User: What shape does this take?
Amino acid sequence: MKQCEVVLNQVSQEEIDPMVGMNRIYGIMHDFFSTSKADYFNATSAYTSPLAKIKVCAYQREGTFQSVNKDLTLRQDYLHLMLRLSQDEIEKVKDKPELILECVKRMQQEILNSPATRIRKFG
Assistant: This one.
């Protein structure tokens, strides 16, 4: 999961585009869920059964990849939903994909200027 932190830092430092970052994270998560975790699933404890662990992992995988295409890239409709784009904005973005970064920056500013962010200053 350290790889996800690296990608998140790259996005936050504007070294890579947020959509590129999401696509990289989906690749990392695909690799994570694809590796064998037999030791983990077969280990028994007083609180969880191997079957419960397998089901939880399946639900986590399903939730993680709910917003991706088959090629592990971010679905555009999901991106538009997360950015709260209006139908007019969606049409503009379809004509000029580079405008999506402006929408991302606008969302970042909304988050940075939200009351919760202003109350809890870190650092």
Summary: Residues 1-74 form one domain. The mean pLDDT is 85.
